[in-house]
Every structure is written in structure tokens, then in C-alpha cells.
Amino acid sequence: MTSASLLSRSLLTEAPRSKNRSVFTLIAGLVVGYCLAQIFSSIAPHESLYPYLSRRFSDSQVATGGQLAPEQSGLKHDHRNDNVSVAEQLKKEVRILCWVMTNPTNHKKKARHVKRTWGKRCNILLFMSSGADEELPTVKLDVGEGRENLWAKVKEAFKYVYHHHYNDADFFYKADDDTYAVIENMRYMLYPYNPETPVHFGFKFKPFVKQGYMSGGAGYILSREALRRFVVEGIPNPKMCLPGTVVNEDIEIGRCMENLNVTAGDSRDEIGRGRMFPFIPEHHLIPAKADKNFWYWNYLYYKTDDVSFA
Ligand SMILES: *[C@@H]1O[C@H](CO)[C@@H](O)[C@H](O)[C@H]1NC(C)=O
Ligand SMILES: *[C@@H]1O[C@H](CO)[C@@H](O)[C@H](O)[C@H]1NC(C)=O
Asked: Which residue range or ranges hold the Fringe-like glycosyltransferase domain (predicted)?
């Protein structure tokens, strides 16, 4: 027998043996796993893996149909052992006022969930609506609802913010009631910037405005100086900011910022990764099987291939 045939025979016999072995390993693993699960569940029969979850629906809440009363709405899911010292420090140094555009239909459906999640991490959180709501609460603006009133609403909201909170924050973030923002990361992004610099941030689109404008979907952030220019120099001057109202408020505030020499900032990180996004996470995370003619590709200010729209 040649050495070549020996080799091939040993390969032939090796294959089934290793298959048997992996089946054995699998069965042994299942048995051991099952036994361990039994042991653990008998050691701690009353300990829930999710103590916060089980606490959320107490008897009184079940009696009210599982609805959380407003005073119980503070999220119970804390990360108690997290080291938050850097986040706490940043909260003092980079103060963010968030204002959320909402409307009476969405107060309970969307806005209250902003308050219970990311919104409470802003230094100041305001809800702008045409309707009053004591639970949120809202700032009631004297502007009609509907897309055609967006521009007027944005101007009224920023006027309110300027007149009541100019000195209470360094940056002013406009979001919608379906936006999600990680405020700790936003502070980290803004930390290098002086609030007295005329600058604004968001997800930048290229057309219509020479320096680009911030897509409404991601919301946008004005520095304190940008806010001052907008309200004091922009809104009262029709040469700077369009009076009345228009449908595309994001383009309009972009034009207005450019007229006021407020720089369209770059919200990407030091290696060019985006930090503000206009669409739902799924469309940004699942990589490109994109329609090349989709308008988004022509709107991008910075080239990227992260959007799917499969
Ligand atoms: C928390 O993090 C800060 C900064 O990284 C560090 O100086 C501090 O010692 C940490 N505290 C604890 C309790 O781990
Ligand atoms: C913007 O900058 C230009 C060029 O420096 C200047 O002429 C103009 O007056 C500035 N406008 C405002 C509103 O600051």
C-alpha cells in the first residue's frame, strides 16, 4: 500500500468519527445545560431575573388595567451600578435644552414616552403643542397644527425658548415626538464647541442651501449664539428668515441659518461616522441593497453607503 492510499483511508474513516463526536458533545451539552438550569431554579425559586419588570405591575396597577399612573411613570429600569461620573460632569458642562414638537393627538401616544425615556436626560425638556396638557406639560403655542404650520411653529417655539431659557442652556435641541436621542452622547459630541460660536448641527443634506441644511428627521441643535441670531436678528427680518409659514421647515431654517452666518456643523465623529440620522435605525444599520435612484443619495452632504431601503 502506498502512503497516498493510507492517507486517503485515514481521511475517510476520520470524517464519520468526528461527526459522531460532535453529536455526542451536543447531547452532553444539552444534558448538562438542563441539569444546571434545574439546579439554579431550585436554589432561587422566588428570585426573578427581572426584578424591575415584576415590580412594575403591582396589584394596584393590574387593577387599573396595567396603566401606569403618571407619578409611577419614572422608569424603574435604572442601571444602578453604572459609573455615571463622566455623564454627570458633562451634564453640568454641556447643558442641553430639548424641545419636542408634538400635537394633541400624540401627547399620550408619543410625547409621554419621550419624557419617560431619553427626554428626562435633557437639562430642560419642553413640549411644544397647540394644545395644553398638564401631565407633560406642554407649552401651548398659538399656531395651528398640520404640516403647513410647521415653520410658524418652529419660530414660535424658538422665540419661547429664547425668552424663557436663553441663560439656562448652552445648546438647544429641536426634536420630534418620534425622535430618539442619546443625550449623554450628544453632550460628548458638543463638548468641544463653545456655545457662543454661531453653529448648528444635525444630519446634513446638500441641496437648496449652499452650506447644506439639517434634515428634520434627526432634529437639529442650535448653539446659544445661533439661537440668539435666529430669534433676535433672523425672525424679525424678512431678508434673513422667511416670514409666515411653509411646508419644509427644515430647509427654511437652513436658509435662515446661512443668511445669519451660522455655520452648518459636522456632526460626524473623528473618523467620519455619523452621529445623527434621519431614518429609523434599521434603515441605517442593515447595509446597502439600495435603490441607486432613491432621492437620499443625491441629498447626502457627506458620502456614505449605510442606508438600505431594500
Ligand atoms: C468612574 O469613572 C471615573 C472616570 O473614568 C473614575 O475616575 C472613577 O474612579 C470611577 N469611579 C468608580 C467608582 O469606579
Ligand atoms: C455674514 O457675513 C458676511 C461676510 O462676512 C457679512 O457681510 C454679513 O454682514 C454677515 N451677516 C450677518 C447677519 O452677520
From this structure: 96-264
Ligand 2 neighbour 261 (Cβ under 6 A):
yes
112 contacts 210 by C-beta, under 8 angstroms: no
Cβ neighbours for 233, distance < 8 A, ≥ 6 positions apart: 240, 260
Q: Could you give the number of structural domains in the chain?
A: 2
**Co-location of 286 and 208 in the same domain:** no
Q: What is the CATH number of the domain that holds 111?
A: 3.90.550.50
CB 42 near ligand 1, within 6 Å: no
pLDDT digits (tens, 9 = 90+) for 120-151: 999 999 999 989 888 889 999 988 877 788 89
Return the higher-pLDDT residue of 92 and 298. 92
Question: What is the number of the ligand 2 atom nearest to the C-alpha of 233?
Answer: 13
Domain carrying residue 107: 84-278
Listed residue (175, 104, 115, 100) closest to 146, CA to CA: 104
Whether residues 239 and 289 share a domain: the answer is no
